[in-house]
Q: What sequence folds into this?
């Protein structure tokens, strides 16, 4: 199946997230209290690596594995949505100590109570889809 | 060798390994690295097409790759924790340990301190807010902002879509509000 490769990539990502402790509530509290460089180091070096990788792909005009031209998907910039949505997510990130990727990794690592958080996230998504037209974007 | 693997990985190893996800997924098929989109896909899958808001009425079948990624992440969590897991406390700074101890943490070993995250915690109002409402904030916020840390910080900034910086600032505003003003509300 065409999508199995994404499963493998997910396994890789989940393993790295777990070993990096980016999924630890303790590390996230530490981050929001500026008590360690650890999480900032992860985020900044991840961004730098991503940038270098993307630039290399463009520089060498690498085609995708499917043979198509590289075409970076654009995220539609919406200032208010980014700021308000981002802040709301940030509240949740500090409370649970996790963002979406870590939520899944935590589940796999045996923290089964996190399934409640994931249900909450799905409910939040439903709420957003219903309220969307009334929210500033 | 196993000791190197079983200790927590330093930021300068895990950061770059995470960053690789961006060019990797682009190379694999022009895929936009991000995890919160899986919430949208799952909701769309579970609701009949015409009965719901426009937001969930889209071609989710072309985005199922992110569900495979999600399942992989769950498996990766299992592997990272059980197969190459560590046997020691999370190596926090002393300042963090001191402050968190004052705020009620006694469990510094688990990724989620047992003091605050357990099935029993759900039976208290604060615990329910923390574990369930925290999730609602994550789902609502990431979909409103159209991305989470992976999608905006790593992918957005990594592909030089600087608008993502606004989202990242939002993330931190929210996080700092909870940690500095609302902590006792949830803990």
A:
């Amino acid at each position: 199946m065409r999508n199995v490769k994404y499963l493998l990539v997910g396994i890789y990502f989940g393993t790295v997230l777990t070993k990096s402790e980016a999924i630890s509530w303790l590390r996230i509290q530490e981050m929001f209290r500026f008590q360690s460089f650890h999480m900032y180091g992860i985020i900044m070096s991840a961004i730098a690596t991503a940038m270098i990788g993307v630039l290399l792909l463009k520089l060498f005009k690498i085609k995708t594995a499917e043979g198509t031209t590289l075409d970076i998907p654009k995220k539609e910039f919406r200032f208010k949505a980014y700021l308000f949505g981002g802040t709301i997510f940030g509240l949740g990130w500090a409370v649970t100590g996790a963002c979406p990727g870590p939520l899944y990794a935590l589940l796999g690592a045996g923290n089964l109570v996190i399934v409640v958080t994931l249900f909450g996230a799905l409910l939040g998504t439903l709420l957003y889809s219903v309220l969307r037209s009334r929210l500033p974007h | 060798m196993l000791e190197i693997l079983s200790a927590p990985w330093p930021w300068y190893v895990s950061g770059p390994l995470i960053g690789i996800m961006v060019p990797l997924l682009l190379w694999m098929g022009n895929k936009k690295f991000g995890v919160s989109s899986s919430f949208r896909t799952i909701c769309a899958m579970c609701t009949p097409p015409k009965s719901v808001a426009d937001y969930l009425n889209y071609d989710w079948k072309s985005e199922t790759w992110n569900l495979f990624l999600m399942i992989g992440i769950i498996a990766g969590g299992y592997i990272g924790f059980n197969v190459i897991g560590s046997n020691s406390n999370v190596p926090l700074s002393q300042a963090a340990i001191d402050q968190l101890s004052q705020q009620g943490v006694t469990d510094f070993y688990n990724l989620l301190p047992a003091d605050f995250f357990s099935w029993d915690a759900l039976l208290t109002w604060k615990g329910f807010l923390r574990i369930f409402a925290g999730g609602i904030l994550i789902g609502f916020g990431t979909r409103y902002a159209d991305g989470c840390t992976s999608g905006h910080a790593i992918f957005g900034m990594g592909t030089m879509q600087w608008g993502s910086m606004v989202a990242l600032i939002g993330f931190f505003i929210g996080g700092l509000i909870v940690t500095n003003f609302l902590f006792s509300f949830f803990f």
User: Anything to note?
Assistant: The CA atoms of residues 72 and 164 of chain B lie 26 Å apart. The radius of gyration of chain B is 19 Å. Chain B has nine helices and no strands. The mean pLDDT of chain B is 93.
